[in-house]
């Protein structure tokens, strides 16, 4: 059996948690059957997604810090910043 890295295990668990939150949110939207409540739930999901993205990327970078260059790390953080900025831009 292969030993899994701790950072990878945390990333997998966070993604499973994120997916579970998404499925639960969809079920709640269906249960409430109300557009206003669905909009509110969807707004809360908009907060969860970027947080999971940042945390999983940070965990991956911590795990890979000794294997990738500083330039690539900076590029990755710039890419994440641009994604988050584009979500906020009107």
What do these coordinates show?
The chain is mostly helical and 90 residues long. The chain has one domain. 84% of the residues lie in helices and 0% in strands. It has helices at 6-32, 35-64, 70-88. Helix 1 packs antiparallel against helix 2 (35-64).
Layout of secondary structure:
Layout: H1 6-32, H2 35-64, H3 70-88
Number of helices: 3
Q: Can you tell me the number of structural domains?
A: 1
Record field, number of beta strands: 0
The span between the termini is 49 Å
In percent terms, what proportion of residues is strand?
A: under 5%
Write a brief caption for the model.
The protein is an all-alpha fold and 90 residues long.
Supply the key terms.
membrane, 90 residues, single chain, DUF2619 domain-containing protein, Uncharacterised_YqhV
């Amino acid at each position: 059996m292969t030993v899994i890295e701790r950072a990878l295990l945390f990333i997998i668990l966070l993604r499973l948690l994120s997916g579970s939150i998404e499925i639960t949110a969809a079920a709640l939207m269906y249960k409430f059957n109300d557009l206003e409540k669905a909009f509110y739930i969807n707004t809360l999901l908009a907060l969860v997604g970027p947080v999971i993205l940042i945390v999983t990327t940070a965990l991956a970078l911590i795990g890979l810090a000794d294997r990738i260059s500083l330039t690539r790390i900076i590029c990755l953080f710039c890419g994440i910043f641009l994604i988050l900025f584009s979500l906020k831009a009107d």
